[in-house]
Design brief:
Elements (H helix, E strand, L loop, with lengths): L1 E3 L1 E3 L2 E3 L6 E5 L6 E6 L3 H20 L2 H17 L1 H12 L3 H18 L2 H4 L4 E6 L2 E9 L2 E5 L7 H12 L3 E5 L6 H12 L7 E3 L4 H9 L3 E7 L2 H13 L3 E5 L5 E4 L5 H13 L11 E4 L2 H16 L19 H17 L2 E4 L18 E4 L6 H4 L6 E4 L5 H10 L2 E2 L1 E5 L3 H10 L4 E4 L15 E2 L2 E3 L5 H7 L1 E9 L19
Parallel strand pairs: 1-5, 8-9, 8-11, 9-10, 11-12, 13-14, 13-19, 14-17, 16-17, 19-20
Antiparallel strand pairs: 2-3, 4-5, 6-7, 7-23, 12-22, 15-16, 18-21
Helix pairs in contact: 1-8, 2-4, 2-7, 3-4, 4-6, 6-16, 10-11
The structure holds nicotinamide-adenine-dinucleotide.
């Protein structure tokens, strides 16, 4: 059995807890490896190593850190195929999608190659008589990231890029369900010239997460995962005095107005609802057609579109999507489908009971479509995270926007229309963090930043972009005055200084 170890000080190191977790092959349902789970002592060791090399890394001029990032980017590009195959083998997403996972993370590394520019502070000459004010951004020290299973390359790269480029040491606690790619990324960072010990990977479950959250030398933690855990991690980390950013789950709505380009909409919704088997926090699992005519036409076209989708093993180039991550997750999705039926939603296409010849024990689910889903239903309120699309009919555009606004989650939302004024009004009013207009998956590019609202995000600063640079640095502001050459002495004052 293949063992997956921690990556500490540039080398594989076995976990000391004696506890292990199975890593499955989602195509076959078989165990393909075991990952060692960290004890508190393992986390402690990772932090001690990180803390010992971080000051020297932080003292490098930012251009030299940027050069390591340039090389890191080159090595990820060199290994794109290898990373995508390893990712697909543990996650189950198809290879083209796995490459997209790596690519979207790589773009954050491209962004932080500009770190000398991004770290520049502000300067005011003559803020008062002979007084100048300037600010600088300094790294926090040792910081950590805790990541979910569904983007094992992109999300670690969202975090390690800005954390390392700004001069911190970074400890990654990736998902124990697909732990190989995060280790491969840390190895590439060392190959790129990063010092051993600066980027360590500790695998684990709640025990490892708690050890990270409680560790006094870890100054900030970035988390991405489901909302209840995000909230727990946020509170425990904040209680321990850390800077926290915790992204949670989602239930994104796609609003379709009657004037939308239906060919495009159907193609966009099929991809966004079923791509990666729906295991994306920016998937579009809810579609809200405005008016019954729009709903009826959309429903008919979605049924046709679904009939053309191919579910296959993750290396099948013709497959639109592959298996879900584990048998346990598959059972959870199936239970939500049953819940929808029990709650009275209309099951238009049932994806359960699908079997792929030769892979009968794989975690496959065909696409499911529900119509006449209503806001009172639990299957609407909760995140399903599978290839299940729910149609919620709205009478008018205000009702459609209110659905997204009133939902507990607020990660992403999209509107499909040719009406600019309606789209503009929607973007201004909807209470959701990331908005698409005729764009089904509005994941912001690497030089903007990513973050949801309400139950989709706890903490304040977003992932990557300038928010990423801000999250991993603290601002120091210097107010300076130099002795005057004339020898004049500034009058003593017992009043709070003002610039009047
Ligand atoms: P998860 O919450 O189960 O796990 C996320 C991380 O938390 C993992 O590293 C896991 O080991 C750890 N963890 C799990 N249980 C824990 C516990 N009880 N205490 C402490 N730590 C624990 O999430 P997942 O299933 O790996 O990922 C899917 C979820 O992530 C979905 O809800 C999805 O919407 C969300 N997600 C959100 C975003 C975003 O940016 N908002 C992006 C991707 C995924």
């Amino acid at each position: 059995m293949r063992q997956i170890d921690h990556f500490l000080n540039g080398a594989a190191v076995a976990a000391t807890s004696g506890r292990k977790s199975d890593v499955f092959d989602p195509n076959t349902g078989e165990v393909q490896a075991q990952v060692g789970l960290a004890s508190e002592a393992d986390v402690d060791q990772a932090v001690a190593l990180a803390a010992s090399v971080q000051p020297e890394w932080a003292a490098l001029n930012p251009q030299r850190r940027a050069r390591v990032m340039f090389e890191f980017k080159r090595l990820i590009e060199r290994d794109m195929n290898k990373l995508a195959h390893a990712l697909s083998a543990e996650h189950g997403k198809v290879i083209a999608d796995a490459k997209g996972d790596v690519q979207r993370g790589l773009e954050v590394i491209e962004f932080v190659c500009a770190i000398p520019h991004l770290l520049k502070g502000e300067y005011t000459e003559g803020a008062g008589p002979g007084i100048d004010v300037f600010s600088m951004r300094q790294p926090l020290g040792v910081v950590a990231g805790i990541t979910p299973f569904n983007f094992p390359a992109m999300i670690p790269l969202w975090m390690c890029g800005p954390a390392l480029a700004t001069g911190n040491a970074f400890i990654l606690k990736p998902s124990e369900r697909d732990p190989s790619v995060p280790v491969m990324l840390a190895e590439l960072f060392i190959e790129a010239g990063g010092p051993a010990g600066l980027f360590n990977v500790v695998h684990g479950d709640k025990a490892a997460v708690d050890a990270v959250l409680d560790h006094p030398r870890i100054k900030a933690v970035s988390f991405v995962g489901s909302s209840d855990i995000a909230n727990y991690v946020y509170q425990r980390g904040a209680q321990a005095g850390k800077r926290m950013q915790c992204m949670g789950g989602a239930k994104n709505h796609g609003i379709v107005l009657p004037d939308a380009d239906f060919d495009q909409v159907v193609s966009d919704i099929l991809g966004a609802a079923y791509g990666s088997a729906g295991e994306r926090c920016m998937a579009l699992p809810v579609v809200v057609p405005v008016g019954d005519k729009t709903a009826d036409e959309l429903r008919a076209r979605l049924i046709d579109g679904i009939a053309g989708l191919k579910v296959g093993i993750s290396t099948d180039e013709a497959a639109h999507y592959g298996p879900v991550v584990t048998a346990q997750h598959k059972a959870r999705i199936e239970s939500y489908i049953q819940m929808g039926v029990d709650e009275g939603a209309e099951l238009v296409v049932d994806g359960r009971g699908f079997s792929l010849q030769g892979y009968e024990n794989g975690n496959f689910l065909a696409p499911t479509l529900f119509d006449r889903v209503t806001p009172e239903m639990r299957s609407y309120q909760e995140e399903i995270f599978g290839p299940v699309l729910q149609i919620v009919r709205a009478h008018d555009v205000d009702e459609a926007i209110a659905l997204a606004t009133n939902h507990a989650y607020g990660n992403g939302v999209a509107m499909f229309t040719r009406n600019g004024a309606a789209a503009r009004n929607f973007a201004a009013k909807v209470e959701v963090g990331m908005v698409g207009i005729n764009v089904p998956i509005p994941v912001p590019v690497a030089y903007h930043s990513f973050g949801g609202w309400k139950r989709s995000g706890f903490g304040d600063l977003n992932q990557y972009g300038m928010d990423g640079v801000r999250f991993y640095t603290r601002t120091k502001t210097v107010t300076q005055r130099w002795p005057s050459t004339s020898g004049d002495v500034v009058d003593q004052s017992f009043v709070i200084p003002t610039m009047k």
